[in-house]
Amino acid sequence: MLDMINRPTKFGSLKITSDHLIAMMSDVVLAGVNAGTVTMIWTMTELTRHPRVMKKLQEEIRATLGSNKERITEEDLEKVEYLNLVIKETFRLHPPAPLLLPRETMSEIKIQGYNIPKNAMLKINTYTIGRDPKCWTNPEEFIPERFLNSSINYKGQHYELLPFGAGRRSCPGMTLGITILELGLLNILYFFDWTLPNGMTIADIEDGALNLGKKVPLKLVPTLRSSPREQM
Ligand code: HEM
Fold first, then answer.
1. What's the complex ipTM?
2. Ligand 1 mean position to 108 CA, how many Å?
């Protein structure tokens, strides 16, 4: 593999060692894991801001998975339909890579009446598309139910929702990213109830902003949920 990378290119000869490769691979994985972590924080932020959605989601998770589980496993993924809707709605409002990766035109093209020259750099603003009233009803509101009975998914075929991009350069880590996200959320929502720290209210949680992470860290207090036997 290193022979392939180190062959002469139009940019000259590269000298990449196995140490460089390992460092690059860990950067790639870390960037992907970071996108998942950012999405998990935004999901918990929106759930805390919307107690109705939090209650509905936790009830659905606990009813679907049963009341006495000791571990969440991969078989539990995709069983909870509402979790999928909540994740889509979080991606719509808080795409972790709001401008995707830049593209360069290979020839002059016309898009919606605009003449775009050859070699122009294009950026796709998924943050703005996710909040565009032409695509979404009440776009600023967090309503996971908007995806109920809708065919829109985040796999790159529906241009109004592109958290993983689209086309040949779309995210190759999508399946891993979604698995990490769903496993993480199922665990923290099945086993724990969440409240704001003493003295904090929903109004103290910052609004969404055009940045990858949150400006102010989200602080929540977990309480291990009581088992159904203890409740009797
Ligand atoms: C929730 C999790 C993730 C999100 C939201 C996400 C999102 C994205 C986005 C938006 C792009 C740019 C796509 C485009 O411009 O069309 C991208 C590219 C990429 N992602 Fe992810 N990603 C996630 C997880 C991961 C993971 C876990 C990995 C690897 C282990 C990964 C590896 C990559 C790589 C290598 C690229 C560059 C692809 C290329 O340039 O051809 N991602 N990701």
1. 0.99
2. 28
